[in-house]
Amino acid sequence: MKAAIVGATGYAGQELCGLLATHPVLEPTFPMRGRADSPAADGVGALDTARFAEVDVVFLCTPHGAAAPLARAALDSGAKVVDLSADFRLKDPAAYEAAYGGPHPAPDLLDAAVYGLSEHARGQVAGAQLIANPGCYPTAVLLGLLPALEGQLVEHGTPIIADCKSGVSGAGVAPSLTTHYGNVAENFAAYKVGEHRHAPEIHQGAGTEQVVFVPHLLPCFRGILATLYLTPIAGVNAGHVREVLEARYRDEPFVTVRSDRMPNLHDVDLTNQCHLGVADAYGQIVVVSVIDNLVKGAAGQALQNANLALGLEEGLGLA
Amino acid sequence: MKAAIVGATGYAGQELCGLLATHPVLEPTFPMRGRADSPAADGVGALDTARFAEVDVVFLCTPHGAAAPLARAALDSGAKVVDLSADFRLKDPAAYEAAYGGPHPAPDLLDAAVYGLSEHARGQVAGAQLIANPGCYPTAVLLGLLPALEGQLVEHGTPIIADCKSGVSGAGVAPSLTTHYGNVAENFAAYKVGEHRHAPEIHQGAGTEQVVFVPHLLPCFRGILATLYLTPIAGVNAGHVREVLEARYRDEPFVTVRSDRMPNLHDVDLTNQCHLGVADAYGQIVVVSVIDNLVKGAAGQALQNANLALGLEEGLGLA
Amino acid sequence: MKAAIVGATGYAGQELCGLLATHPVLEPTFPMRGRADSPAADGVGALDTARFAEVDVVFLCTPHGAAAPLARAALDSGAKVVDLSADFRLKDPAAYEAAYGGPHPAPDLLDAAVYGLSEHARGQVAGAQLIANPGCYPTAVLLGLLPALEGQLVEHGTPIIADCKSGVSGAGVAPSLTTHYGNVAENFAAYKVGEHRHAPEIHQGAGTEQVVFVPHLLPCFRGILATLYLTPIAGVNAGHVREVLEARYRDEPFVTVRSDRMPNLHDVDLTNQCHLGVADAYGQIVVVSVIDNLVKGAAGQALQNANLALGLEEGLGLA
Amino acid sequence: MKAAIVGATGYAGQELCGLLATHPVLEPTFPMRGRADSPAADGVGALDTARFAEVDVVFLCTPHGAAAPLARAALDSGAKVVDLSADFRLKDPAAYEAAYGGPHPAPDLLDAAVYGLSEHARGQVAGAQLIANPGCYPTAVLLGLLPALEGQLVEHGTPIIADCKSGVSGAGVAPSLTTHYGNVAENFAAYKVGEHRHAPEIHQGAGTEQVVFVPHLLPCFRGILATLYLTPIAGVNAGHVREVLEARYRDEPFVTVRSDRMPNLHDVDLTNQCHLGVADAYGQIVVVSVIDNLVKGAAGQALQNANLALGLEEGLGLA
Predict the structure, then answer these.
(1) Fewest CB atoms less than 10 Å from the CB: which of A141, A280, B81, C309?
(2) What distance in Å separates the CA atoms of residue A213 and residue C38, rounded to the nearest whole number?
(3) Global confidence as pTM
(4) Sign of CA dihedral B246, B250, B255, B261
(5) Strand pairing of D224-230 and D160-166?
(6) Are D7 and D34 in contact (CB under 8 A)?
(7) CB of C202 within 8 A of CB of C139?
(8) What one-character DSSP code corresponds to residue D283?
(9) Where residue D40 falls among pLDDT bands split at 50, 70, 90?
(10) DSSP 3-state assignment of C223?
């Protein structure tokens, strides 16, 4: 089987090229730039949608807005699409417009798009033509949160704090004041408090606007750690939440509920894993969720979804 | 005036030596090791409590437990004491025993000890013989939290999340697995969730056990950033909390309420400053508080307290 | 085929465990601690030389001195040995004693030991029972230097500067002042100038004491970059040295002579590759050589050597 | 006395603003942008050469080429000039043109310009109107090298290797691929081998083209470490070179010859100090020189020179 990667010069695109290089079944065709007019780069060719006809799956690693028309072209060519941009994540075009500042570029495709949080959408992903790959923060938050919500362990109407910290690769490969070494190293900051675009995605995925999502920029390259604070219903403590998480993820190859200690970024570095930890703290239940933002939070989950959609073994090419 | 520094080989002690080197009034006598039997180090002499009689103030930068008998000796010599250890922070000896694992080493001195969160205890510090210098995390949390609590802007009985992140200097100068570069760099973790010794200190300082304190280890050397989540009473938003913070700290030289953006660690690096930021986020009010953990969180606030107690200008020797 | 790893808790041992986990032929048996009395660690069992009889190859990742008796035990059990310690690198026991401060622990085995700089000892390694895996610095220096020396492009008797820089993982997993984050981050230093133990190994490998080796500690975890300065014979410039390097390494899967730019640590991160660059500079020829110190400089080259010695394809399990 | 700073938004300009903020005599007037058309920044005003008439000294922190006409304007206004750019460092306009790619912007001023390596040009600087502040690399190299050259301890005609390593602040505040955290952290590289613009400056300062200067980019923010390799004349060893360095710098407040160990970047962090170390290594003499590139390598030495030129105590405002 063959794959095309569009936007192969960004961090997610590079990571995906690396993963596909050792995939036993899915063969990458030539990696493409994200826009017809973007500068050439070593080994990355011009965007050529005609080549979508040659492949089984197209991975879109472009900025939001640019992905939707490419998705349409790929679907028309008969390829499946895994879109790593935000274009098909929000089901409500009004929510997209509010968050991304313009009308949705392809509202007619939204119904068909499947939100690909793999462990929570396996069946839908398997039959999908168009998969919206989740954002990095929503992946970390939702994997840690959904079982407790589904198990109705969280007190109705209480705030759920999602204090999230990401390595700087989440800000992309483009040089900027944000990504300058002098700004990142030995520094730390909260940013876009109350206005980050991943908030509506988390709210949609959690099925509630209770989640208070605040992102921070870590002085490191890779990884996301989300610290979640849940107000439990009466009689519930961390042990109960742990049981629910363990039961939910027992057979999942890419999610581990740690019992030894809280997880850290190194535990999941360069892997498609999500590690979870749980503890009681002064009446709240604290769930810590870590992923590699470029793998489980982007390229890895995209490949996991492609494997599912193409009928391959879900973990092929993933560690 | 003269000062003695005990425990001058640790990070707080080193920082204090650096600050005193340029202090216009307070002259450091020779820096001492923290224990009579600890190894010698460059320029740091043996512990010699007899020399306490020569000085106006003794700074104790020893581990908890070791400080209390030294404080007694210094007080008996007629010196004022600023204790950077935890020995006199908790007013309740039972709370000390629960947190620090042994009976309090000098319960008779607890009543006289003043908890030196300078901006909130200026009058008491000015007249004190024995000052308990606050912990690094409690300093960051309480400076951001107290005005909102005192202004009764926080809904009674709701959890107050204090998600805190510290540079590795907080773990001390001693080599350990925790402080190994290979464990710190490009990593991040929550630790001691629900069981950190600064939690009872924060509860005491805030006057409520509502505060849910969770510490994390940042891949950097200096600095603490605390992200506080408050449930406001009806009708209150971030603007109101900002006004209260600005009113409370308008004349404080070492606390700044930023209006341009959220503060980051670089803003306060190597200074005795605390910078605060406020924003609304999905029904919660987010207060971000940053300090340099070794300065405002340790040596700087200790010097600020010593200045106050000795009747000097509060900011002498501090930036 | 089966492998034993002794000293699996150190960085080289951990790296080797990681590589063997995906090796298609060579199966790791249980990883062992380096000494019978060393503390237990997660998933790492007691040292049990009786189990050497079960395996085809034993990897020794112990400190020098500890490896030699284990090598003898393994050889007696019929296993091949790849020793990552320094015990069999120096052919002259007097040189060992001078560098390592004690008599050689097994001088009778020295003759049989093959110095396993794979690309320069392939034939010998293929037939060896006991392979001395080269040190990390010597690997980087010798891969860049040997072709120019063999091609007689270096002026006889002139100094060859080998200014080398290593990430802190070269200092080992044990906590120490050297490896404390506060000492490593945002710092840089030369160390052991004129007295590092890898100097005699480089001299032996280069066949000359002309090489002036000076190591430095980088503020990063992995990687070695060696900057070599050669005085060329009359008429020779960087272009000639480049041609010789390219000719020598054209068919080598793990050595690349870059023509686009000087190599950096990221080029070889987590791989068994050595990248080389060449340029003229004010009469000297500068050769830059980079490796991942834990892979090509330790575990990776050890596996490359084991593959050769066991008659397997040389690159199995290596990237 | 009053000072103007032009180019106050770059790293050197920011550093100089910080130093002047606590200078007891020299008062900064308003900091200016480097070009009339450059974007405004917090607290940094428009370039206004008319204000040069108000000040005693003008610090030029602009890019090369932009400084020369500003220097002329300042001199015409009667101010002294310390130029931190490269415009007046090379005495030979042809060398400038070769290195900087265009004709010299003010060749008539070259004769009057003094090359301000403070410890080696004190007398000239004291009487100068126009001071060319040395480059960061040349400062580190020449302070370590000149005494041995002047003492004729180096074998005539032999190469002097200057293997230099700099923190990323040397690449400036502008975002670029070079300064992106993802390119800097956990990485290391040689760059501009044989073609860096500081090479002719070093050759001029050393009075010989023997010096083989190769720069490298460190994964840290501040600091330069230069490792110098000297071929001694017969009978000379590191002890002799050390004696010469100590004799030369005994009374210098900003240069220290360490006898305890080799210096590292932390030794001089945020100071105007240069620390030197010396050792023998296999027939070569190794001199290690470290400075903070933004202080002794830029703003600090500029202030030292301004103090000298204005008849103030040389070390005012410097640590």
Answers:
(1) A280
(2) 45
(3) 0.97
(4) positive
(5) antiparallel
(6) yes
(7) no
(8) T
(9) low
(10) coil
CA distance linking residue C167 with residue C165, whole number of Å: 7
C259: Cα within 13 Å, side-chain hemisphere: 6
Residue numbers in D near C167 (CB within 8 A): 186
- Please report which confidence band the pLDDT of residue A164 belongs to, taking 50, 70 and 90 as the band edges: very high
Catalytic, out of C136, C164, C220, C274: C136
Task: List the end-to-end C-alpha distance of chain C, in Å, as a whole number.
Answer: 20
φ, ψ dihedrals at D214, nearest 5° = -130, 115
Over residues B252-274, the mean pLDDT reads 98
Taking the C-alpha atoms of residue A61 and residue A248, their distance in angstroms, rounded to an integer, is 30
Coil, helix or strand at residue D16: helix
* Cβ atoms of C317 and C23 closer than 8 Å: yes
Neighbouring CB atoms inside 10 A of A36's CB total: 10
Strand, coil or helix: A39: coil
Which residues, other chains included, contact C317 with Cβ-Cβ below 8 Å and sequence gap of 6+?
A: C19, C20, C22, C23, C24, C26, C303, C307
B53 close to D (CB below 8 A): no
Helix %, strand %, coil % of chain C (to 5): 35, 20, 45
Please tell me which chains touch B, using 3 or more CB pairs under 8 Å as the contact test. Answer: A, C, D
CB pairs under 8 A between A and C: 4
pLDDT digits (tens, 9 = 90+) for D230-269: 999 999 999 999 999 999 999 999 999 999 999 999 999 9
- 0.95 surpassed by complex ipTM: yes
DSSP character at residue D297: I
Which of A274, A15, A309, A305 minimizes the C-alpha distance to A142? Answer: A274
* Distance between CA atoms of residues A221 and A292, nearest Å: 10
Per this entry, what is the length of chain A? 319
Give the burial class of B318: count Cβ atoms within 10 A of its Cβ; 0-12 exposed, 13-18 middle, 19 or more buried: buried
Question: Span C30-56, mean pLDDT?
Answer: 84
SS3 C214: strand
CA B225 to chain centre: 13
Q: What are the beta bridge partners of residue A286?
A: A229, A279
Tokens of C298: 């330790």
Residue B186 Cα, gap to closest chain D Cα (Å): 9
According to the 3-state scheme, what is the secondary structure of A169-230?
HHHCCCCCCCCEHHHHCCCCEECCCCCCCHHHHHHHHHCCCCEEEEEEECCCCCCEEEEEEE
Name all domains of chain B by residue range, CATH numbers in brackets: 2-134+297-309 (3.40.50.720), 136-293 (3.30.360.10)
Q: How far apart are CA B170 and CA C266, in angstroms?
A: 31
Beta strands in chain C (DSSP E): 2-6, 27-28, 57-60, 80-83, 114-115, 130-132, 160-166, 189-190, 211-217, 224-230, 255-257, 274-281, 284-291
Q: How many CB pairs under 8 A join A and D?
A: 50
Name the residue of chain A whose CA is nearest to C185's CA.
A186
On the question of pLDDT at A251 being above 80, the answer is yes
Amino acid at C94: A
Tokens of C285: 């020829």
Residue D218 to residue C226: CA distance in whole angstroms: 14
Q: What's the mean per-residue pLDDT of chain D?
A: 96
- Work out the burial of residue B299: count CB atoms within 10 Å of its CB; fewer than 13 is exposed, 13-18 middle, 19 or more buried: buried
Question: Is the dihedral angle over the CA atoms A295, A296, A302, A305 positive or is it negative?
Answer: positive
Distance from C-alpha of A290 to C-alpha of A225, rounded to nearest angstrom? 4
Q: Is B286 helix (H, G, I), strand (E, B) or coil?
A: strand
User: Cβ(A318)–Cβ(A303) under 8 Å?
Assistant: yes
Q: Find the distance separating the first CA and the last CA of chain D, reported in whole Å.
A: 20
d(CA D306, CA D126): 9
Neighbours of D311 (CB within 10 A): 9
CA distance A19 to chain C (A): 13
